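2024-03-11 09:14:02 INFO receiving multi-entity request
2024-03-11 09:14:02 INFO entity count = two
2024-03-11 09:14:03 INFO echoing inputs for audit
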Amino acid sequence: MLTLELNHLRKQYKNKVAVADLSLRLEEGVYGLLGANGAGKTTLLRMLCDILKPTSGSVLCNGTEVREMGGEYRRLLGYLPQDFGYYPEMKAERYMRYLAELKALPPDLIRSKTEELLRLVELYEVRNKKIKTFSGGMLRRLGIAQAMLNDPEILILDEPTAGLDPKERIRFRNIISSFSRNRIVILSTHIVSDVEYIADQILLMKQGELISQGDLHQITEKVRGCVWECVTESSQAQELNERYAISNLRNCGEKVSLRIVAKEKPVEDAVPAEPNLEDVYLFYFTMKAPDGGCALGVPARPSVQTSDGQDGMSK
Amino acid sequence: MRLVREELYKICSRRIVKISFAAVLAGIGLFFMMIGPGDERCSIGAGMSREDYSGFAAIAKDKELAAEFEGVLTDEVVSEMAEKCFFQEYSEKGFATNRNYVNTFFTDNGLTDGVSRGEQRVQATRTIPLESTAMGSLTGESVYFTYIRGWQVLKDLFSVGALMMGVLIIIGLSPVFSEEYSLKTVSILLTTAHGKKKDIWAKLAAGVVFFAGVFGICTGFMILLCGCCYGFKGLECFAGMLDGSWWLSTEWMASASYISIGRFFARYFLVAFSGLLLLTVFMSFASAISRQNFTALILGLIFFLLPILLWIFYMMSYMHMSPRFSLFLTRMISSSPVYSCFGNAIEQVTTRTMLLFRGVEYLVCTVICVGLTFRRYRNYQG
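2024-03-11 09:21:47 INFO inference complete, emitting structure
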């Protein structure tokens, strides 16, 4: 069974600590890495990919330092970076073949694997078009396809669903779910629902540290008692909106139904609610008000489901 | 091998490379027309009966004229040449008014008592015995005369053509590594099995193949232009005939051995090839340390053209330099890629110590550049 061990991993840029003394053991399964911008997710993933050298600590694959393994480790690896780079003038199929060569795929497998993956991400019909003509979603799908070229045992995806429409995201989730058997898949994202659906384990990062870890149930249990629902007048809703983190707001005729994340009961008639991952995200990444509320850095805004299915609060 | 092919495709598929390559070929063609057929003049006869030809007609007449005297050069042949083709006469501005291939040959190679060197013009009155001329005494062998104008044109054409090739190499190879940074593809490449080793070799090899292709095509094109226009004869002739005026004015040639035109060009091409190969290797390094293609391009141009500035600096201050430092500096400058393309080509390709110096310098530079390229690229940290 494949294991990845992170031992006291630390990355420091001058005075800024991007990843602080992080220790973790990863086994087969899908890991969802959640955190706000600047939490150190990308730095962590780049160290896992052996692109970035840690300031201290080590990454071990089955007990061996990945830097020592070199090419052997990279044969196990599939990586989609946050800023997916591509050659604008190259055609999609050529790009895939080029990467298949780099990933040391056997020559007789390159054509079939390229075709299979381009079909999987629904880019086969445009395989002979230059990549510069692709939309953001198509680029992302191409990125996912290239990451899976070598059937990696360790798949690291940094913001894989950014720019995908709801249909594409569902498709992506299904692909990852079916692909993840007997592999380690690490998924960094802002989109809470992606993690909620497919991650076996959720890792919450804040300011370079791992602040919480567990499966969906364990993670949400930690904020049980901090999620409330209430129905109020619209004038009071405005006041609550400014004081607390509101994870959902819905108009019900003259009244407003609110879902509030707060350590203490925000209003008299508020009732405890079943927490979900969005509540967890708000709990860990926005709560700082001294009165136990969840005041945001900017005036708190309700979560709005956008047309692409993304959470308005999530960014 | 397939990786090299892919990397080569990436280099060659860039629009700027295609345009630059076409521009280089067009530039070579244009320059050839200017210094070749466009500059040809042939005067036959004297006084009122003189016939003047230019362009391709002049080439044809010069060929006919040269064919009459083809063979081993003797005092009798030189005298016959002067009798039939006359000594050159000069205008007030110093241009020969009745030049043709034959009288240019015996004038430029010092076979008369006249002078046609630099700004100096002295009308000849007689031929002088071959054994008392520099050509006769320096070669130590009999000189074979034939029409070699094409090779003279090729020598000048190649100097400029090689410079253009240098610029094309800089343009073509500046993105090899830097593009991976600027397009952000490096993060993916460095996480692949071959990304940190084999692919770096493949990029370096693709650069060399690209350079070799450019060199082969451009050189072949130049040889073809000259050969088709002037003919391919005379490769076994004495290389000094390529540029007599320069040949006679240098002292060092007293110790140089006889070299044929064919051998001269083989060495000249080799010298230019090795110089541009060094530029190719340097470009890989420049590209690996640059985050933008433009930065690599500028670094390449500086490396390529800096020796010209150094040469100007040397000419201004060599009196204050120690002889050893002066020698070191001149050798370093003359073995630079840019001076491999033009300048004292005959000196460069015939002096053994120059070749040795060049070999050692290139080897050291190559090892350093390749080592630093690997180190810089594979340790990319974002």
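2024-03-11 09:21:48 INFO post-check: Residues 304 and 312 of chain A are 5 Å apart (CA to CA).
2024-03-11 09:21:48 INFO post-check: Residues 288-315 of chain A have pLDDT under 50 and may be disordered.
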